[in-house]
């Protein structure tokens, strides 16, 4: 699975810019495992300190996890080959806040 890091955005003048920014979300105040895929069976590729700011490029279903912000099977793609459970991300929603990963 790959992540397209550049999104196109149209300015008020109708000019398309490749530098559109994604919103960043705050993770729970706990050390968080970043995994190579959308589930606890995937390898840990790194860890994030509590309260990290992360972009969500896309979201996909995976292993159900209970965390600081509830129980969910939604996993957030925060970089190429890097996923965290949405149960540890303060998105303000119990559902999807980004497009589904392809």
CA radius of gyration: 14 Å
Order of helices and strands: EEEEEEEEEE
Strand content of the residues, in percent? Answer: over 45%
Helix count equals: 0
Largest sheet: 3 strands, antiparallel
Task: Give the termini separation.
Answer: 7 Å
Unreliable stretches (pLDDT < 50, length at least 5) are 1-19
Q: Which structural category do the helix and sheet elements fall into?
A: mainly beta
Helix content: under 10%
Average pLDDT, to the nearest integer?
87
Give the strand line-up of the largest sheet.
Answer: 6-3-10
Explain this structure.
With 102 residues, this protein is an all-beta fold. Residues 1-19 have low confidence and may be disordered. The N and C termini lie close together (7 Å). It has strands at residues 9-10, 16-17, 24-27, 32-35, 44-48, 53-55, 58-67, 70-79, 82-85, 89-90. The strands form 4 sheets. The chain has a 3-stranded antiparallel β-sheet with strand order 6-3-10, with no helix packed on it. Helix content is 0%, strand content 45%. The chain has no helices and 10 strands.
